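Case 381 in the screening queue. Each case pairs one protein sequence with one candidate compound; here the compound is pyridoxal-5'-phosphate. For every case the pipeline is the same: read the inputs, emit a complex structure as tokens, and attach any notable structural observations.

Predict complex for case 381.
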Amino acid sequence: MIPVNEPLLGNEELANVTDCVQSGWISSAGNYIEQFEREWANQCGVKHGIAVCNGTAALQIGMESLSLKPGDEVIMPSFTIISCALAVIKAGAIPVLVDSDPRTWCMDVSQIESHLSPRTKAIMPVHIYGHPVDMDRVLATARQYNLFVFEDAAEVHGAEYLSNRDSGNPIWRRCGGMGDLAAFSFYANKLITTGEGGMLVTNNDEIANRARSLRNLCFQPPRRFYHMELGYNFRMTNIQAAIGVAQLRRLKQIVARKREIAKRYTDRLSKLAWLELPQEEPWAKSVFWIYGLIIRDDINMDAEQLAAKLTKAGIETRPFFLGMHEQPALHQLGLFINKDSRLPVCERLARRGLYVPAGMGIKDEQIDQVCSVLEQITYEL
Ligand SMILES: Cc1ncc(COP(=O)(O)O)c(C=O)c1O
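Case 381 output:
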């Protein structure tokens, strides 16, 4: 079976982990944590990095740091992972969903304004599958209505966005460095991995202090075991950070390889008329976290059926996200139960999209094998 993703770990990761074991610094105290936080924040171009145990935790402490009130609203895409909605709800607020852009699969930024209300407090753009959200409109709306922008950058390590295109002075900016705060995941399938892990980044001192406190059970500096509010144990270990430090040194090569993998797929698959392939807008430098395929509407086969065919041929796949408005767990909370509020692009992506193997461990011959199988399937349509 060709796995959908395999991490690639090297000698430097091993040396750093060995260092942790030999020195005994294996908990959430240790030099690698601070180093990883500093270097990660630096590569995003922001001041603070707060390392946590996973990306969901980063979203959660970030959202809680915004001190939202019950009934406050956060505008976000439906097409994302449950972690985003969960963070909004756990912070006491209500997710308000917009549909996706059919080309980038990210939130359709032209729909944000029509979803604003007097209760809107934040926008959460989620950069999907390696491609940046068109951020200028998000940032302009946020400025105009005094809203927080909380980027979910879990899937876009190293991706860039061409900002200020209308001003005649465009500038490339890193995903995760454009909003008030941003969350990253370092799960094993991400470009940079620590096995499990996450990071919140921000330029805002107040948000950073609050997030640091929430990460660590809200211990009060003057008196240990005295708590003014309830937090979490979301700490990252020094061992995880040690792996992250080593991985980060290779970010440029990792991005280059991901782009190479995507190009190899695109070069070969673009002649298959039944498939839509990942796009890269002129204003984006995608890192192609995954390589997604959409089956065109006139083809009598959905993503599940294609996945079954690929599995039979020894190729592992993953389905695309299922939108938040289609989640029973959220319906049970009384959210998104209005049947009229369909989100057609998101629903199409969920049913006609899947992704094929494209992790750092993949070999060119394996990519070619996946392409051959897809070419073969063409004759069965
Ligand atoms: C967009 C997005 N946000 C958040 C997360 C959550 O990260 P984690 O799995 O580390 O909790 C993921 C995980 O894949 C993700 O894809």
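Case 381 observations:
- The pocket of pyridoxal-5'-phosphate is lined by residues 54-56, 59, 80-81, 83, 126, 152, 154-155, 185, 187, 198 (CB under 6 Å).
- The chain has a mean pLDDT of 97.
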